[in-house]
Amino acid sequence: MAAVGVAGSTFTVEVGASHYEDQVTTGTVTTTPTITRTKTLGDVNFTQTDLNSTISLNFLYDENTGMYEALATAAAAGSSIAIEIATGAGGADGQWLGYAMYIDSLDMVTDAANVAMCTVSLQGNVTYT
Q: Which domains does the chain have, with CATH numbers?
């Protein structure tokens, strides 16, 4: 089977009624199943017992009126946020949806050129459609 490359994707972060996407520079979706190994009399049995999803986003710091402040406020309140990642035009090549993602960490770093970048890591249930 041939490999297919998809040019372009959109990460949309929804916090409350606001949608953010222009600031996101890179993102990663990781899905990790928890596998339980059970030794039986005949062989070893492997069973998936859980499915953990994380999303990591790098984005431009937009001071205290945009995505960073919205994420910091949600983290302080322990609120969940929604994430949508669409590949191709309008998600035609697939999309990941996380309607109740919780912020695991939120970082802001400024480099020597005075460019501020942020990273957020989220945990929750992510589905691929």
A: 9-128 (2.30.110.20)
As a whole number of angstroms, the distance between CA 123 and CA 113 comes to: 32
Buried b (16+ CB within 10 A) or exposed e, 65-94: ebbbebbbebbeeeebbbbbbbbeeebeee
Structure confidence at residue 91 (pLDDT) = 63
Predicted local distance difference test score (pLDDT) of residue 95: 83
What pTM does this model have? Answer: 0.76
- Name the pairing type of β-strands 80-87 and 127-128: unpaired
What value does the mean pLDDT of the chain take?
83
- Is 44 in a helix, a strand, or coil? strand
